[in-house]
Every structure is written in structure tokens, then in C-alpha cells.
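Blinded run. Sample ID left blank on purpose so nobody reads anything into the name before looking at the predicted structure. Input follows.
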Amino acid sequence: MRGKHILAIALFLTALITTASPTWAQGWVTLGCRDVNFALDRDVINVGRRDGRFSAIRVRVAGNDVRMLDLKVIYGNGAPDDVPVRAVIRAGSQSGPLDLKGRDRAIDRIQMIYASRPNFRGRAQVCVDGREVVAGGPPPRPAMNWVTLGCRDVNWAVDRDVIRVDRRDGRFSAIRLRVAGNDVRILDLKVIYGNGAPDDISVRAVIRAGQTSGPLDLKGRDRAIDRIQMIYEARRNFRGRATVCVDGRIA
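Blinded prediction complete.
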């Protein structure tokens, strides 16, 4: 009998701990991107994610090496947090996870001081990701090998932009568009493959802020991508400019 009582107590404590501890699902989301010139640059990424909770951030760099001189996170309650990441981040690489102070935090904006390294590569692009934490519910669906190929800011006027991927060493089976900050009307989307062949992607539609297009399959077999050409415009409203990111699904 005594053994049964001990077993019953153990099962009760296990159930109590399981009930009291929330299930946490973590995933990285892009908070924003900025272009960097040779000169020392100060920039702000307005996140405004008071409805999201983040446990860490990371910095990704493309196009050229970037010397990060100062990085400050302003939380949703206005409190600042100086994040120690004063270092050179090489083109095509990223920092490790940079933990935020205290418990999981809402982020209002991120302030950066940086400079790209003067060389033949030219300007760089810096993106900041946030590790989002959601309590309860099922874990997120697998990422299916999606990687960010590049991001661009969109003004109210009709805009033409090129994201230079130059991933001849990668093979992609599809792309998708992610939009933040404001709704965006996609007017034309063209993928230029590594061999120079163009592919017009049929995605002429409005993508709402905070939403993602479905997977847009690429022609033929898995392809290397040289660049992506876009014509788009942000919708005229109080939200202002938008950010469009393109992801590639690695085969």
C-alpha cells in the first residue's frame, strides 16, 4: 500500500508541474532591415511589436562586412537596453543570439550605429531578427528550410527594386514574400536565375502588413537565383512605409 501511495504522489506532482509550466514555442522573425553606406551611419528599425514577446535578437549582414559600433533595444515600456555586439560581422554571416534583459520583452524600436568596410563590394544590408516566444498552443510548423534572401523598404509611390541574391551555390524550389509595416500592392515580380534566364512570377495582389504570400514555385527543377526584380507600392494610409522581404525555400 505504501508503494502505491508514493506512486500516486509522484504522478500528482508530475501533473502539477506540467500544468503549472507553460509550453513555449520559439521562432525567429525578421524585425527589419537597413542599407549601410561607407560612412558612419545611424539608423532606427521601428518594430512596434508591443503584442509580441522576444527573448533574443540577432544581426544578419549581406553585401559587405559591417562594423557594428552600438546597438540599443528600446522596449515597449520605453526602457533602453544596450546590447554588447561591438564587432565586425562578415558579409553573409550573422551574430549569435543576443539575449534581452529580464523576461521575454516587447520591442518598440532598435537603434544602431555602424559602418560598412570600404572595399569593392560597396554598400551592405543589415537585418535584425527577433526570437519570438509564444506561450501555450502547439509548436510552430517546421520552417521547411526557408532562408531570407533580402528585404527592401517601400514608400507610397510606385517603386522598382532589385534584391541581389547571387546564390549560385544554393538551389531553391520556391520563394515567398513577407510584408511588415503597411499593406503592399505587388505589381510585378521576376526571378533571374543563375544562368540568366528570367521567370515572371504571378503574384499581382495586395499583401497585408504582417502577412506572407503562399509558396511561389519556381519553373523547372530546383534553381540557383541571381536576383529578384520587384515593382510594388505601399497603400496610402497613416501607417507609412512598409518593408518587403523575400524568402527562398532550399531544396
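Unblinding after everyone has recorded impressions. The longest strand covers residues 41-62.
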